Amino acid sequence: MSQYNWEQSEAIVLVRHHLKMLPPSKLSSLKTEIEDYLQFREEVDRFLQHYFSGVCTQKCYQDNYSACCGHEGITTFFADVVINVLMSSAKEIDRLLEVLSLPDQGMKCVYLGEMGCLWRIKPIVCEMFLCKHAKKTVFDKAPSALKEWEELKSREKRYTWPDRPVLFDDLESHFIRAGYSSSLMYFHNSPGLLRVKSLAIRKRKTALHKF
After folding, report:
1. 113: helix, strand or coil
2. Three-state DSSP class for 190?
3. Backbone angles phi, psi at 108, to 5 degrees
4. What is the CA radius of gyration of the chain?
5. CA-CA distance, 159 to 66, in Å (whole number)?
6. Cβ contacts of 27 within 8 Å, gap of 6 or more
7. How far apart are CA 137 and CA 118, in angstroms?
8. Residue 4 burial (C-beta neighbours within 10 Å; 0-12, 13-18, 19+)
9. How buried is 131 (Cβ within 10 angstroms: 0-12 exposed, 13-18 middle, 19+ buried)?
10. What is the pLDDT along the chain (211 residues), one digit of tens a residue?
11. Torsion sign (Cα): 124, 128, 39, 165
12. Which residues lie below 8 Å from residue 132, measured CB to CB, with a gap of 6+?
């Protein structure tokens, strides 16, 4: 098993174990916490299905045009794993662990099956990636779609950009408080994201001092 597959598998097993140990009330609380994000993801999915389904199916999935589904090419946040495990069946999670344990399958993403991505709620990096060819093909013909896409990209930051309290950071914190650690906890380990949080804290303190 490659380092990438091992890190992915470890995170999935860790999350599933912890969620199984939670009382129903805590599990329900976590599901409530992600409701707004799931609504956002539904809106993004409808947008992509409407404008990009044909383009991406042909150029990316069938013709291997884009690197968006490349071998070990995706960044998976720990919160992506939490949300997906929360919303997936035991069979779906078993399938992810199964493919992660298989030998190298070539140049495609380990999670890319015959019918597409094996995740029920796929990683946000994958969901929000559009290659240059796809964007030019669609946005040149439908400028209004570009404005809608930019609004969705802006809303994405409400969950993933830690210049304020955000869902992805909060989900990591929940597991850290429970005593867990994962290399996928970028919101608590990535120097770049830690700088974003530190700068945001300083700005808030400066603003408070002005009053």
Report:
1. strand
2. coil
3. -90, 155
4. 18
5. 26
6. 19, 86
7. 27
8. middle
9. middle
10. 889 999 999 999 999 999 999 999 999 999 999 999 999 999 999 999 999 987 776 556 555 555 567 766 788 999 999 999 999 999 999 999 999 998 876 778 889 887 788 999 999 999 999 888 889 999 999 999 999 999 999 999 999 999 999 999 999 999 999 999 999 999 999 999 999 999 998 887 776 666 5
11. positive
12. none
Nearest partner of 51 among 143, 157, 155, judged by Cα: 143
| Sequence ranges of the domains in the chain | 3-210
- Other C-beta atoms closer than 10 Å to the C-beta of 1 total 13
Main-chain dihedrals φ then ψ at residue 31, nearest 5 degrees: -65, -35
Taking the C-alpha atoms of residue 79 and residue 91, their distance in angstroms, rounded to an integer, is 20
